[in-house]
Amino acid sequence: MPKMWTEHRQAGADWASAFMKRHKEEISMRTPEPTSLQRMSSLNKHNLFYDNLEKVMKKGFACERTWNVDETGITTVQKPARQIAQKGDKRVGAIVAQERGTLVTVCCSISAIGNHIPPFLVFPRVNVQDHWRLTLPPSSVVEGHPKASGWMTQENFTSFLKHFANHTRPTSESPVLLLLDNHKSHISAKAINFCRQNHITLLSFPPHCSHELQPLDKCVFGPFKTFCNQASDRWYHDASNAG
């Protein structure tokens, strides 16, 4: 063992470099994703979510009757795509609508076999405007926000549940299972009573675990936001929209 290891009570940088070279097929340097202590500690083998899910599934919910719901915020200012620039340029600009965008909440729901219902949107306005619906998918629902912030509220989520029931048609013979996180906007007496009366069973993910358990977060919202940014970029680069 080198003498400096004893003096400094640690291995040197040369050892670390050699160690990485010896194990380059098994390990690599990665930039970690910031994860809160609550998320780290909540997602463990003692988590009871899958036990609860197994108990609920014994009631006979088919894949097409098992749904997931979540919402995400979309800003009206896109993140510009990468573009070719001359080497040495320190700053490369791209046109956007304004410096800071307006937040619009999009609430989506998908089933275990990939079916979906039209989106439910919450705009940061008190009153609904007809032109908001012009480019939305058919049967989409748009609501304003009582505090004009654009975030989902308990009243908005109860409206979404009515929208959800209209498209999934739950009955006593064919009930629906709805998986969701336990955000405060999702948990209200009015929403729970509506689900009980309309044969919708709610099962929530444990706190601070949606980053791994929420299907929409894992594989839908990321590509969706990428496509939104690409569509905005194409619109700005279209010569017919100049000015």
From TrEMBL:
Recorded superkingdom: Eukaryota
GO CC entries: nucleus
Organism: Biomphalaria pfeifferi
GO molecular function: DNA binding
Protein's name according to its UniProt entry: Jerky protein
Pfam family, one: DDE_1
Region forming the signal peptide: none
Domain DDE-1 residues, every copy: 103-228
InterPro entries: CenT-Element_Derived (IPR050863), DDE_SF_endonuclease_dom (IPR004875), RNaseH_sf (IPR036397)
